Predict the 3D structure of the following.
Amino acid sequence: MALKGVTRASLMQVRVLDLEKSLQFYRDILGLVEVCRTTDGRICLKGYDEFDHHTFVIREADKPGLDFLAFKADSDQTLTEIEANTKKFGFPCEVIPANSDQPGYGRRVSVKVPTGHRIDIFAEVEMSKQHPDVKNPEIWPNGIPPIGVGACAFDHALLFGPNASETVRYFKEVLGLGVAEVAKTPDGQGDLCTWLTGSNRPHDVAVLEFAHPGKVHHYAFKLNSWTDVGRAADILTINNVVIDAGPMRHGITRGYTLYFFDPSGNRCELFAGGYAYYPDMPVRVWDFDQVGKGIFYYDRKLKDNYLEVVT
Amino acid sequence: MALKGVTRASLMQVRVLDLEKSLQFYRDILGLVEVCRTTDGRICLKGYDEFDHHTFVIREADKPGLDFLAFKADSDQTLTEIEANTKKFGFPCEVIPANSDQPGYGRRVSVKVPTGHRIDIFAEVEMSKQHPDVKNPEIWPNGIPPIGVGACAFDHALLFGPNASETVRYFKEVLGLGVAEVAKTPDGQGDLCTWLTGSNRPHDVAVLEFAHPGKVHHYAFKLNSWTDVGRAADILTINNVVIDAGPMRHGITRGYTLYFFDPSGNRCELFAGGYAYYPDMPVRVWDFDQVGKGIFYYDRKLKDNYLEVVT
Amino acid sequence: MALKGVTRASLMQVRVLDLEKSLQFYRDILGLVEVCRTTDGRICLKGYDEFDHHTFVIREADKPGLDFLAFKADSDQTLTEIEANTKKFGFPCEVIPANSDQPGYGRRVSVKVPTGHRIDIFAEVEMSKQHPDVKNPEIWPNGIPPIGVGACAFDHALLFGPNASETVRYFKEVLGLGVAEVAKTPDGQGDLCTWLTGSNRPHDVAVLEFAHPGKVHHYAFKLNSWTDVGRAADILTINNVVIDAGPMRHGITRGYTLYFFDPSGNRCELFAGGYAYYPDMPVRVWDFDQVGKGIFYYDRKLKDNYLEVVT
Amino acid sequence: MALKGVTRASLMQVRVLDLEKSLQFYRDILGLVEVCRTTDGRICLKGYDEFDHHTFVIREADKPGLDFLAFKADSDQTLTEIEANTKKFGFPCEVIPANSDQPGYGRRVSVKVPTGHRIDIFAEVEMSKQHPDVKNPEIWPNGIPPIGVGACAFDHALLFGPNASETVRYFKEVLGLGVAEVAKTPDGQGDLCTWLTGSNRPHDVAVLEFAHPGKVHHYAFKLNSWTDVGRAADILTINNVVIDAGPMRHGITRGYTLYFFDPSGNRCELFAGGYAYYPDMPVRVWDFDQVGKGIFYYDRKLKDNYLEVVT
């Protein structure tokens, strides 16, 4: 296989303030599929176009935010290598046994990165019963059109925290992710933000230097087109969802985007398009004073508080 | 890097009957960028969104068709391994020195596969001067909108020839491509056609069992959306290009598509969308009697002579 | 008002072979709203974006086809004038009293035109309870997204019959419709087909010279965009609806189009776009040998039997 | 004809600070066609999809803003009636002779309305040599794709001034325009803004109560789709045009929109879609506290200074 090692960000667990209200949001408005509930009351969901058991979990808590982001590796052997290399790299890690907190999932290597986030890596997961057709497939599973905005898959997350360069180095050197784009610090010497990917996606994860550890700026689900992004804005509006920015385009990744908040204040994104990344491409570099254009391509300046509001 | 080994089909040389007429077609109508002419009179082109020196070459000849299709490997070491593995696999191969027939290209391993096609593999190529922006990039190189239909990159080719299963086995076992979809023979025992990929693309190459060796059914350039496919049909029409089929959708790959003929009778495709393939996905399988739907999703039957007209 | 007299084709009654199957087709797949059933068992429907009580009626019968097409006039006074002018013009006409066969409708002037069709004209109709929002309106009634393909309104019909020029003359001289486009007969002397409109729509009705009287080639519902036409093809396909042609574009009207058959064999169209007609525009004229391009802009030739299959 | 009387806003003359820079903006970026220059140095332009001689004129001056907005009437007889009715209505008006300041134009009735704007009405104008095809028409004139953002026609203007209700009453009672939507004043008693139309367009002109006379908030050119609006944002961005708001959607008219400034500070709009207005529709009414949603449907609040920045 040409796609080897860690191929994608593919599971995320987030904290929400009200479970049922959040379920209604992610299922009925974003269009995620409800897969199951865990014995401790979390809800597992997935995009209609994903094969894995589930890819997004909501957990009721006092504060919103991210519990962990997980990456999928191509084999158990790769996972074993990652465990060894993580220890060698010097980051604390433990192994979470199969079928403990995540139904259908094999063992996970769980790493604490310096930005304060928990990053899991796994290789095995059961196929969801609600998977895309495999035999004479219709374009939608069982020929049933997606509901809500039709989010088809988990896409990526933007993490905020201190010592971003060390987290990035881990993602590159141990997980083997490629760097698609970098935004420089004001003095041009350091990296303010780095966009990394395990495949053609322009990003699976991005990491931005930030004073407070363990923060998530947003996480994104995939749509198929600019038209879908526009229709999503229509549907979010009629459902009184607070839109933060967009529909618009990023300079960085060139993707079409819409930012909005879930009922708990977690910023979500719907993302479509973007170029196809290959590791033989040069890293695209943004000067600090062009970051506004990089994110808000049409307005060419950052929205007020855009980099301050996180969960 | 998570994208390793052979990552994509990325260079093709085709025969055309009239060089200047073909240049006008590929450059002014499809929107490819003219890069250079070789000393022996061939013309090298590329998509505006590609970094490599060139990715598409036209050569004047008496008959249209394919000279060779080339894949890009991630390193010279991989190339050396492929050379050894090809010999071990038992297929004849030779090495074409750097900078011989393809300006800017490093050495290529050139293999004759049983379907009668020449397949090259290379690892090194110079970056084109007309590459996408790398520093504070605009969405188009230098902020100049693409011309014509705006084909942004070479995408894939469908090869026809005998002993398809052997060529497929080589693509899988030596080049490491993944199988995204398969169409079965009438008896359900064999494979009529196999779609293979080196990345998230749903296909880089497909191979169909056919009596005559070395044939190409079509080769495709990438567009960004269904809307671009529709606009391409408008632009081909006002330029009197013969449209073969579409705008429509494939069931196989789920891509949006438009087929048409270049001035020499080579069938071209403009392809957009399609799902993101990952190697942990099951192979999608089409029964023989559903192949019409697989290719012509809306009409649900093959167009007359669709499988007979090749070059 | 600048839109005066007869402003649009806005009501149609068609024959279907199986009422419930047809309801399922028009309501669940095309997305029309079911308004009511008449005491004699017909079903009244409308597009979600229409204010009138209903605009489309299906009646169970032995043969498919058109019962009548009705136009809306701006006032009862205009209706009275049309009645007088129809008699003066020499066409048989009668008045159908208010609230007889069409619930919610005022009196209709019913005319038999030489092509063998029944054409009604009315001025008064109750507003549907399921009308678009009027107070702080959402983009969809009550903020509920359309279902199925989301047909938003009745759009137009293409009538086939003998003495087309006389029916056209009536539409122009008595109903006051404007001629947007004309296709000429092979000798260039006569009109094979005429496209007429009461507003900016490029057509409300078209009339084609044909040996058999009272035939309908197709009737169309409105979509909002090329993207909606593509999505409609997806939805018709997963519902196993037979697609006749498209997604494609017309040269005539420049509209985007998809043709398909209802369960009784009536050809339907989904139509989007097209230029905005104004009466000060010259009539656009198509030579007979260009009619293929006029209808099938991308293929530039008529599909086999396209002009023969009617109901 | 069903479209009678005054059918559309169809000519506008605006003041710009630098003529050549403005020409470059309107021609090369917006894609208007340069038709001619007047002897006194103004430049006449038109959309590629318009038949009239020209529809947009730029005049170099010290301050940006609107010279006049003109409506087209269906006949010279209508124009004579409008002249008489204007005098009867009590507004000052004069007749501008044919071929004086506007090349190719017949006589115009020129009216000073209480909001401080000059409104012209005309009936006769020569057809432009660069008109859409009439004989076997391609979808674009001579089969040449539009340049820049591809603005196809003048669409509408939003006028600001005192005594808006009197200007509106004139538009309704003398010009015969229909009222599509109204936004109420804070007390719910009066009309803050009124949207009027002469055809299916959701608006040809809108008038908003404002302290300063003769102001224009924006004028709009037509695009064909949401996709075109997105592509326009791309093209404006690479040309460093200041985008004021959008891509987004209006609740009012339901159109897709993008606001930006010409080099002189005149706010322009690119507008696509919107419902088809008919005079038998009820007027849509917006409460004052919902006007933000009416204009900025996705953000649901007015952008700061949106109602203050005018020329």
Remarks:
- The CA atoms of residues 18 and 192 of chain C lie 34 Å apart.
- The radius of gyration of chain C is 18 Å.
- The helical segments of chain C are 19-29, 76-89, 164-173, 226-238, 291-295.
